[in-house]
Give the backbone structure.
Amino acid sequence: MTLVRYPGGSLSFGRRTYVMGVLNVTPDSFSDGGDWIDPDRAVRRARTMVREGADLVDVGGESTRPGARPVSAEEEIRRVVPVIARLARERILVSIDSSKAAVAEAAFRAGAKILNDVTALRGDPAMGRLAARAGVPVILMHMKGSPRTMQRNPEYRDVVKEIVSFFREILRIALRAGISRDKIILDPGIGFGKSPEHNLEILRRLDEFRSLGRPLAIGTSRKSFIGRALGRRVDDRVSGTAATVAAAILRGADVVRVHDVREMSDVAHMTDLLR
Ligand code: HH2
Protein backbone atom coordinates (compact mmCIF):
# COMPACT_ATOMS: atom_id res chain seq x y z
CA MET A 1 0.00 0.00 0.00
CA THR A 2 1.22 3.50 -0.84
CA LEU A 3 0.02 6.41 1.22
CA VAL A 4 -0.05 9.80 -0.52
CA ARG A 5 -0.77 12.64 1.88
CA TYR A 6 -2.49 15.87 0.93
CA PRO A 7 -3.05 18.82 3.31
CA GLY A 8 -5.69 17.46 5.69
CA GLY A 9 -5.91 13.85 4.52
CA SER A 10 -4.45 11.03 2.48
CA LEU A 11 -5.11 8.62 -0.38
CA SER A 12 -4.09 5.01 0.15
CA PHE A 13 -3.23 3.42 -3.15
CA GLY A 14 -3.11 -0.31 -3.69
CA ARG A 15 -6.41 -1.14 -1.96
CA ARG A 16 -8.77 0.22 -4.57
CA THR A 17 -8.96 2.48 -7.59
CA TYR A 18 -9.70 6.16 -7.07
CA VAL A 19 -12.18 7.82 -9.43
CA MET A 20 -11.35 11.38 -10.46
CA GLY A 21 -14.30 13.23 -11.99
CA VAL A 22 -13.53 15.74 -14.74
CA LEU A 23 -14.95 19.24 -14.36
CA ASN A 24 -13.95 21.49 -17.24
CA VAL A 25 -14.91 25.08 -16.50
CA THR A 26 -14.13 26.01 -20.09
CA PRO A 27 -16.07 27.02 -23.21
CA ASP A 28 -14.06 24.72 -25.51
CA SER A 29 -13.11 21.36 -23.94
CA PHE A 30 -13.33 18.51 -26.41
CA SER A 31 -16.24 16.61 -24.88
CA ASP A 32 -18.00 18.92 -22.40
CA GLY A 33 -16.87 22.40 -23.49
CA GLY A 34 -19.36 25.05 -22.37
CA ASP A 35 -21.41 22.67 -20.21
CA TRP A 36 -20.00 23.83 -16.85
CA ILE A 37 -18.75 27.37 -17.49
CA ASP A 38 -21.48 28.74 -15.22
CA PRO A 39 -20.23 28.39 -11.58
CA ASP A 40 -23.61 27.27 -10.20
CA ARG A 41 -23.90 24.53 -12.80
CA ALA A 42 -20.27 23.53 -12.22
CA VAL A 43 -20.83 23.17 -8.48
CA ARG A 44 -24.00 21.14 -9.04
CA ARG A 45 -22.14 18.90 -11.48
CA ALA A 46 -19.35 18.33 -8.94
CA ARG A 47 -21.88 17.39 -6.25
CA THR A 48 -23.51 14.94 -8.64
CA MET A 49 -20.15 13.37 -9.47
CA VAL A 50 -19.36 12.90 -5.77
CA ARG A 51 -22.79 11.33 -5.21
CA GLU A 52 -22.09 9.02 -8.15
CA GLY A 53 -18.78 7.85 -6.73
CA ALA A 54 -16.05 10.39 -7.53
CA ASP A 55 -13.33 10.44 -4.86
CA LEU A 56 -12.04 13.75 -6.13
CA VAL A 57 -12.96 16.36 -8.71
CA ASP A 58 -10.40 17.65 -11.21
CA VAL A 59 -11.17 21.29 -11.96
CA GLY A 60 -9.66 22.83 -15.10
CA GLY A 61 -10.06 26.25 -16.68
CA GLU A 62 -8.11 25.73 -19.90
CA SER A 63 -8.70 23.12 -22.59
CA THR A 64 -5.68 21.06 -23.59
CA ARG A 65 -7.37 19.47 -26.60
CA PRO A 66 -5.23 19.46 -29.76
CA GLY A 67 -5.05 22.98 -31.19
CA ALA A 68 -6.80 24.59 -28.19
CA ARG A 69 -6.46 28.35 -27.75
CA PRO A 70 -4.25 29.29 -24.76
CA VAL A 71 -5.93 31.19 -21.93
CA SER A 72 -4.35 33.86 -19.68
CA ALA A 73 -3.71 33.06 -16.01
CA GLU A 74 -6.19 35.78 -15.01
CA GLU A 75 -8.96 34.22 -17.12
CA GLU A 76 -8.18 30.73 -15.84
CA ILE A 77 -8.26 31.96 -12.23
CA ARG A 78 -11.54 33.79 -12.88
CA ARG A 79 -13.06 30.52 -14.12
CA VAL A 80 -11.81 28.04 -11.53
CA VAL A 81 -11.35 29.84 -8.20
CA PRO A 82 -15.01 30.57 -7.39
CA VAL A 83 -15.90 26.94 -8.14
CA ILE A 84 -13.00 25.49 -6.13
CA ALA A 85 -13.77 27.72 -3.15
CA ARG A 86 -17.36 26.47 -3.02
CA LEU A 87 -16.36 22.81 -3.42
CA ALA A 88 -13.70 23.13 -0.73
CA ARG A 89 -16.30 24.59 1.63
CA GLU A 90 -18.36 21.44 1.04
CA ARG A 91 -15.27 19.32 1.79
CA ILE A 92 -15.09 17.94 -1.73
CA LEU A 93 -11.52 16.91 -2.57
CA VAL A 94 -10.34 19.02 -5.52
CA SER A 95 -7.34 18.80 -7.81
CA ILE A 96 -6.42 21.75 -10.00
CA ASP A 97 -5.72 20.88 -13.63
CA SER A 98 -3.34 23.65 -14.64
CA SER A 99 0.19 24.24 -15.88
CA LYS A 100 0.44 27.80 -14.58
CA ALA A 101 1.91 28.45 -11.13
CA ALA A 102 -0.24 31.57 -10.62
CA VAL A 103 -3.39 29.53 -11.24
CA ALA A 104 -2.23 26.65 -9.04
CA GLU A 105 -1.37 29.07 -6.24
CA ALA A 106 -4.80 30.72 -6.40
CA ALA A 107 -6.42 27.27 -6.52
CA PHE A 108 -4.51 26.06 -3.43
CA ARG A 109 -5.49 29.23 -1.62
CA ALA A 110 -9.14 28.53 -2.54
CA GLY A 111 -8.84 24.98 -1.17
CA ALA A 112 -7.53 22.67 -3.92
CA LYS A 113 -5.36 19.94 -2.38
CA ILE A 114 -3.76 18.24 -5.39
CA LEU A 115 -1.94 19.51 -8.49
CA ASN A 116 -2.61 17.92 -11.88
CA ASP A 117 -0.04 19.32 -14.31
CA VAL A 118 -0.22 18.01 -17.89
CA THR A 119 3.18 19.59 -18.62
CA ALA A 120 4.83 17.77 -15.66
CA LEU A 121 6.31 21.03 -14.26
CA ARG A 122 7.79 22.05 -17.62
CA GLY A 123 5.10 24.61 -18.48
CA ASP A 124 6.05 27.12 -15.78
CA PRO A 125 9.47 27.30 -14.08
CA ALA A 126 7.81 28.39 -10.81
CA MET A 127 5.49 25.35 -10.59
CA GLY A 128 7.87 22.85 -8.94
CA ARG A 129 8.79 25.07 -6.03
CA LEU A 130 5.21 26.20 -5.57
CA ALA A 131 3.96 22.60 -5.31
CA ALA A 132 6.79 21.75 -2.91
CA ARG A 133 5.90 24.71 -0.67
CA ALA A 134 2.19 23.85 -0.75
CA GLY A 135 2.95 20.23 0.22
CA VAL A 136 0.40 18.88 -2.26
CA PRO A 137 0.47 15.61 -4.21
CA VAL A 138 1.42 16.21 -7.83
CA ILE A 139 0.20 14.31 -10.89
CA LEU A 140 2.95 14.55 -13.50
CA MET A 141 1.77 13.71 -17.01
CA HIS A 142 3.76 12.84 -20.11
CA MET A 143 3.14 14.92 -23.22
CA LYS A 144 5.19 14.97 -26.39
CA GLY A 145 5.23 18.53 -27.77
CA SER A 146 2.54 21.06 -26.81
CA PRO A 147 -1.25 20.89 -27.28
CA ARG A 148 -0.87 23.10 -30.35
CA THR A 149 1.48 20.69 -32.14
CA MET A 150 1.32 17.34 -30.35
CA GLN A 151 -0.89 15.46 -32.79
CA ARG A 152 1.24 16.24 -35.85
CA ASN A 153 2.50 12.77 -36.61
CA PRO A 154 3.98 11.77 -33.23
CA GLU A 155 6.75 9.19 -33.48
CA TYR A 156 8.47 6.94 -30.94
CA ARG A 157 11.00 4.13 -31.15
CA ASP A 158 9.31 2.44 -28.20
CA VAL A 159 6.53 4.55 -26.73
CA VAL A 160 6.53 2.87 -23.29
CA LYS A 161 10.31 2.93 -22.86
CA GLU A 162 10.43 6.57 -23.91
CA ILE A 163 7.77 7.53 -21.36
CA VAL A 164 9.53 5.54 -18.62
CA SER A 165 12.77 7.49 -19.30
CA PHE A 166 10.80 10.72 -19.33
CA PHE A 167 9.34 9.82 -15.91
CA ARG A 168 12.82 9.06 -14.51
CA GLU A 169 14.05 12.48 -15.64
CA ILE A 170 10.96 14.33 -14.44
CA LEU A 171 11.17 12.61 -11.03
CA ARG A 172 14.69 14.01 -10.69
CA ILE A 173 13.48 17.49 -11.64
CA ALA A 174 10.60 17.28 -9.17
CA LEU A 175 12.86 16.14 -6.34
CA ARG A 176 15.31 18.95 -7.12
CA ALA A 177 12.42 21.44 -6.82
CA GLY A 178 11.79 20.08 -3.32
CA ILE A 179 8.76 17.88 -4.01
CA SER A 180 9.07 14.68 -2.00
CA ARG A 181 8.96 11.44 -3.96
CA ASP A 182 6.08 10.13 -1.91
CA LYS A 183 3.84 12.95 -3.22
CA ILE A 184 4.25 12.04 -6.89
CA ILE A 185 1.69 10.29 -9.12
CA LEU A 186 2.58 9.52 -12.75
CA ASP A 187 0.33 9.62 -15.82
CA PRO A 188 1.42 8.46 -19.30
CA GLY A 189 -0.81 11.09 -20.96
CA ILE A 190 -3.19 9.23 -23.23
CA GLY A 191 -3.80 11.33 -26.35
CA PHE A 192 -1.04 13.85 -25.69
CA GLY A 193 1.36 13.47 -28.61
CA LYS A 194 0.34 9.86 -29.33
CA SER A 195 -1.23 8.11 -32.28
CA PRO A 196 -4.24 5.84 -31.69
CA GLU A 197 -1.87 2.84 -31.86
CA HIS A 198 0.49 4.44 -29.28
CA ASN A 199 -2.46 4.88 -26.89
CA LEU A 200 -3.46 1.24 -27.25
CA GLU A 201 0.11 0.09 -26.71
CA ILE A 202 0.45 2.20 -23.54
CA LEU A 203 -2.71 0.57 -22.20
CA ARG A 204 -1.56 -2.94 -23.16
CA ARG A 205 1.78 -2.39 -21.41
CA LEU A 206 0.65 -0.18 -18.52
CA ASP A 207 2.16 -2.61 -15.99
CA GLU A 208 5.66 -1.66 -17.21
CA PHE A 209 5.29 1.71 -15.47
CA ARG A 210 4.96 -0.06 -12.11
CA SER A 211 8.76 -0.39 -11.98
CA LEU A 212 8.92 3.34 -11.17
CA GLY A 213 7.34 2.60 -7.81
CA ARG A 214 4.77 5.40 -7.90
CA PRO A 215 0.95 5.34 -8.22
CA LEU A 216 -0.39 5.64 -11.77
CA ALA A 217 -3.18 7.87 -13.03
CA ILE A 218 -4.74 7.46 -16.46
CA GLY A 219 -7.15 9.53 -18.53
CA THR A 220 -8.75 7.67 -21.43
CA SER A 221 -12.25 9.05 -21.00
CA ARG A 222 -14.10 9.68 -24.30
CA LYS A 223 -10.81 10.29 -26.11
CA SER A 224 -10.49 10.14 -29.88
CA PHE A 225 -8.59 6.82 -30.08
CA ILE A 226 -11.78 5.21 -28.73
CA GLY A 227 -13.87 7.06 -31.32
CA ARG A 228 -11.44 5.93 -34.01
CA ALA A 229 -11.52 2.28 -32.91
CA LEU A 230 -15.30 2.04 -32.64
CA GLY A 231 -16.51 4.69 -35.08
CA ARG A 232 -18.30 6.54 -32.26
CA ARG A 233 -18.80 10.25 -31.71
CA VAL A 234 -17.58 11.89 -28.53
CA ASP A 235 -20.99 11.60 -26.79
CA ASP A 236 -21.17 7.89 -27.55
CA ARG A 237 -17.91 6.51 -26.12
CA VAL A 238 -19.00 5.32 -22.68
CA SER A 239 -18.71 1.59 -23.45
CA GLY A 240 -15.36 2.07 -25.15
CA THR A 241 -14.17 4.11 -22.18
CA ALA A 242 -15.37 1.36 -19.81
CA ALA A 243 -13.21 -1.21 -21.59
CA THR A 244 -10.13 1.01 -21.28
CA VAL A 245 -10.81 1.74 -17.60
CA ALA A 246 -11.16 -1.97 -16.77
CA ALA A 247 -8.03 -2.88 -18.73
CA ALA A 248 -6.03 -0.07 -17.11
CA ILE A 249 -7.09 -1.12 -13.60
CA LEU A 250 -6.17 -4.76 -14.25
CA ARG A 251 -2.72 -3.55 -15.34
CA GLY A 252 -2.15 -1.38 -12.29
CA ALA A 253 -3.86 2.01 -12.67
CA ASP A 254 -4.57 3.64 -9.29
CA VAL A 255 -6.54 6.70 -10.44
CA VAL A 256 -8.90 6.91 -13.41
CA ARG A 257 -9.81 10.37 -14.72
CA VAL A 258 -13.33 10.17 -16.18
CA HIS A 259 -16.32 12.23 -17.31
CA ASP A 260 -18.96 9.49 -16.88
CA VAL A 261 -18.53 9.04 -13.15
CA ARG A 262 -21.56 6.91 -12.40
CA GLU A 263 -20.70 4.30 -15.04
CA MET A 264 -16.93 4.31 -14.44
CA SER A 265 -17.31 4.05 -10.65
CA ASP A 266 -19.20 0.80 -11.26
CA VAL A 267 -16.52 -0.38 -13.68
CA ALA A 268 -13.77 0.51 -11.21
CA HIS A 269 -15.50 -1.17 -8.28
CA MET A 270 -16.26 -4.34 -10.24
CA THR A 271 -12.76 -4.50 -11.72
CA ASP A 272 -11.21 -4.00 -8.27
CA LEU A 273 -13.10 -7.10 -7.11
CA LEU A 274 -11.68 -9.07 -10.05
CA ARG A 275 -8.09 -7.85 -9.65
N1 HH2 B 1 -6.50 14.61 -20.15
C1 HH2 B 1 -7.07 15.83 -20.36
C2 HH2 B 1 -6.86 16.86 -19.44
N2 HH2 B 1 -6.13 16.67 -18.31
N3 HH2 B 1 -4.86 15.23 -16.93
C3 HH2 B 1 -4.30 14.04 -16.70
N4 HH2 B 1 -3.58 13.82 -15.58
N5 HH2 B 1 -4.44 12.99 -17.58
C4 HH2 B 1 -5.15 13.13 -18.74
O1 HH2 B 1 -5.23 12.15 -19.53
C5 HH2 B 1 -5.76 14.40 -19.02
C6 HH2 B 1 -5.58 15.45 -18.08
C7 HH2 B 1 -7.92 16.05 -21.58
O2 HH2 B 1 -9.25 15.77 -21.34
P1 HH2 B 1 -10.37 16.85 -20.96
O3 HH2 B 1 -10.02 17.59 -19.71
O4 HH2 B 1 -11.69 16.20 -20.93
O5 HH2 B 1 -10.41 17.85 -22.21
P2 HH2 B 1 -9.82 19.29 -22.42
O6 HH2 B 1 -8.36 19.25 -22.25
O7 HH2 B 1 -10.25 19.62 -23.85
O8 HH2 B 1 -10.45 20.22 -21.43
